[in-house]
Amino acid sequence: MSKRLFVKGNEAAAMGAVEAGCRYYFGYPITPQSDIPEYLSRELPPLNGEFIQAESEIGAINMLLGASATGARAMTSSSSPGISLKQEGISYMAGAELPGVIINISRSGPGLGGIDASQSDYFQCVKGGGHGGYHIPVLAPNSVQEMYDLTMHAFDLADLYRTPVMLLGDSVIGQMKEALIPNPRPVRELPAKGWAVRGKSGAEQRVVKSLFLGDGELEAHNWHLHAKYQVMKEKECISEEYETADARLIVAGFGSVSRIAHTAVTMARAEGMKVGLFRPVTLFPFPEQALAQAAARAGKVLVVELNTGQMVEDVRLSVGAAAQVSFYGRPPGAGSLPSPEELLEVIRKNYEETAR
Amino acid sequence: MRKDVLIAGFGGQGVLLAGNLLSYAAIDEGKNVSYFPAYGVEKRGGSATCTVVIADGAVGSPVVGQPSVLVVLNQASLERFGARVRPGGVLIVNSSLVDVSALGRTDIEIVSVPMNEIATDLGDPRMVNMVALGAYVALTDAVKLPSLAAALSQALPERNHKFIPANVKAIETGAEAARAKKEA
Predict the structure, then answer these.
(1) I need a surface site. Which of A59, A170, A208, B141 has the fewest CB within 10 A?
(2) Which residues of chain A neighbour B1 with C-beta distances below 8 Å?
């Protein structure tokens, strides 16, 4: 086992990118993710890589598009308002089927909002923030270790499915420091990048584009993308369960709030309540089946989010009529993080209702 | 085992370094740890706080609502966080700067240590954070004192390694002061 390091979440994501073979980063500074470009500005040049502070977020996402078109592993990162600016580029990458990793250490909105931990961008990230009805895989780490591991996974997913992939965190996950084991990049068989544009040199012409004007061409492209999303739904769902086997109430939450809920569930168990935790790690594809099974066993799901209710819609779609779904939301802002004790109180109330 | 502490003071008192050092020591002891600094629109001289959770198993929440131990280095932090200490918990006070008489908590243990005086006597008032950390570890056994001393070389940049012996002394003196207070 390698030595355990003590690392900030943002740095762990940047370390994971380097380990995954990412050598090109394009970004524009914004709190609370600037540790990522800071780290990569220092670490990439000695590795023969390239760090570019772009003129804007829009510049950065289009540089990512360009680097990715050559087949290189490349990344950008930003935070909510900056991610809004990148949406056009993400849509173009999704349309042109270009891999690439986008880290979003989100802040609170709408508008300029604030810098505090928030999950108010679930819809934007998961439902396709740009135009054109695409999806991209969205990964939601809840620890420093996962910031590292899931960043590496994001690069593999991007290459496997020729798609942009987003890693979604917030200032809790990005700014906290925890032990990190810097695992080596997992060995995974990946398709050759026969589509990459690297200069023709006598070979057949390759074109990377999202413009399809031929009769029926764009419809076929959309069905092709749709089929890809169906494969992701079958093969790429990740979720984590804690104490769900005999639970009569399942708490569901992702990212930072799942950590708070974990402690609240432990406290509830200590009081004799049969409560469990379900955490989607992939937000797209959403782990519908695993959640449906856990929910059907328990009969009730309590969704907790740092917003006024977004993931709860996917939970309702997943569990259907098999379980009752209730919601507890803490919209973003300074002082808005719920404590484990506060969540315990909400759990108690919901649990008592199941007992009636 | 799961221990949590909220350390609070003003910017410049070394609150964040204290939290980092404690975390390094816990990791070296093979424990899991989460260090969460208050991340807001703070400025120099404004408040500085961090939460450290140390656990044998899963850390769980890095966010702590009712800390079992609160270390306060200045008056404003006592006023902001004093009511949040878990009943039965411990409040460690820098009595050089903090007057605890108006707090009105009888359900917690309060240990007052004149941290600024101790640090100044040892040669540098900036070591107030090390005195505080020594007191915390002596009262809670969250980590072993030698682990703190050993972790200094990781928590401090190399240019400051020459100050390690003085900091070790400050940690030990803070620990002794806290133990003496507890026995008294």
Answers:
(1) B141
(2) none
Would you say residue A266 has pLDDT above 60? yes
Domain that holds residue A276: 239-355
Same domain, A245 and A225: no
| Nearest of A172, A178, A184 to residue A140 by alpha carbon | A172
Q: What is the CATH number of the domain that holds A15?
A: 3.40.50.970
Q: Can you list the positions of beta strands (E) in B95-172?
A: 109-113
**DSSP structure class, residue A183:** P
- Residue A200 domain flag: no
Which DSSP symbol is given to B95?
T
The per-residue pLDDT for range B142-176, each reduced to its tens digit, is 999 999 999 999 999 999 999 999 999 999 999 99
- Domains of chain B and any CATH numbers: 2-183 (3.40.920.10)
Q: Which H helix or E strand runs over A226? A: helix A217-235
Shared-domain flag, residues A214 and A344: no
Q: Do A176 and B20 lie within an 8 Å CB cutoff?
A: no
Q: How far apart are CA B168 and CA A258, in angstroms?
A: 38
Residues A142 and A215 in one domain: yes
Contact A307, A329 (CB under 8 A): yes
Average pLDDT value for residue range A41-56: 98
Write down the pTM of the prediction: 0.96
Q: Is residue A202 part of a domain?
A: no
Total beta-carbon pairs less than 8 A apart between chain A and chain B: 74
